[in-house]
What we know:
Helix content is about 30%, strand content about 20%.
Amino acid sequence: xxxxxxxxxxxxxxxxxxxxVAGRWGAATAxxxxxxxxxxxxxxxxxxxxxxxxxxxxxxKLSDHYEVVGxxxxxxxxxxxxxxxxxxxxxxxxxxxxxxxxxxxQAVAVEVSSGDDRIMDVTGRCIAAGMHVHLDKPGGKSFAxxxxxxxxxxxxxxxxxxxxxxxxxxxxxxxxxxxxxxxLGQIFEIDCVMSVTHGLSYRKYLAQFRGGSMFxxxxxxxxxxxSLMGKPGRIVSYPRQTRTDVGVDMxxxxxxxFEYPKTTVTIRTASLEVEGxxxxxxxxxxxxxxxxxxxxxxxxxLTLRLALSEARxxxxxxxxxxxxxxxxxxxxxxxxxxxxxxxxxxxxxxxxEHELLVQQCLLEACGYPLTGTH
Length: 374
């Protein structure tokens, strides 16, 4: 097994950064023990998103990078439900208007439910107030609203970072490096899976979205595919409902195919795979090598399988395992990256054009219209 220690990982993998639509690669990922020049004042709007408490916990943990100034939750029931949650304990509760007027505020994490039609209205008000935004995925159901807000962010030179945490996964960044440096040759196949088993209540939640499980989970995989391959020539979706005995009409078993001139990409999501978390995967095959990441994340050390037709860098010909140190947390690398972007230490490796393309591909795959004024 080829093991990357933390120093090797940070210099050889994280420095490779992430692929973006324009074809540039940036030094995106930082370590938790760096000493930043300034702390970013940040607040959070919303508590309904599945990642909301985890993001707040991470912002507070990263106290060398962030100063959490407050949280706003307009829904009284949601506030009552969450105000005693350990993640929010000791954080001042206030209105959105009060939060956006906090002196020195630089950024806001928008953690509104993905199904809440107000998600882009909230984000737009943050942008209008001059805030950088961490917007938890996938950014709503209206492409017109999403584009309008991101266009305004571009005019104001503000960052909008979507909450796709796998893009900062060291194993994923290793894969991006392998593709970028030509280790795998001509990419001809990419296979992605992100599945889990859902109970009745979450199936009811997913039923509100076109594409069902594809809308919430395929977005993560589309982010990775677009970073590697850019815009697909054609998108074809195969939504299916496998479970019909639970009284919820939804796509619980979806396949999306991205077509490129020399490459086909499959993206699968399901709400009924036993131990699906253990088979979440990104497999990239070229005519000179393969990267097989499975599972995509775990609490312990990450491992991928690398096959090469010839030796590359310190990696031998044939199949081998490459391991990475356990990540400090699920969201740490991405939120440190955001702080560095805001401080001007790095360019955003996933600029607004990338976020727009990912959203466009997702909505098209799920059957949402890309035109309209809503």
